[in-house]
Amino acid sequence: xxxxxxxxxxxxxxxxxxxxxxxxxxxxxxxxxxxxxxxxxxxxxxxxxxxxxxxxxxxxxxxxxxxxxxxxxxxxxxxxxxxxxxxxxxxxxxxxxxxxxxxxxxxxxxxxxxxxxxxxxxxxxxxxxxxxxxxxxxxxxxxxxxx
Length: 147
Prior knowledge:
46% helix, single chain, 5 helices, five-stranded parallel beta sheet, two-stranded antiparallel sheet, alpha/beta
């Protein structure tokens, strides 16, 4: 049924729940698991001080961001391992994360994408589309949504 499963993580508790579900599914069907993290190159809020970028220097900021990305992927790999799966990892910086997710799933020939999402109701749900919703609208690959 599934030979390669891709799970998307943003390092949140909900993403970690999606990683666990994806690992359990991969284990049950004998599939490989790819853990993907996509970050906007503009998304560096933890390096902002009073609305201005830190004066640490570009190389230091880039190094700290890379460390943060590695840590959240390491957590995902540990979750997968605790569920009997040795996961592959990938990290991409892209201005439009949903496009990167769809592209990677196609390039890696993934049979299913697993993502976590919070359900937004009312006006916020109408105005602000989640990355999961954008992926659902732009991919032909099946998507398993974890809540």
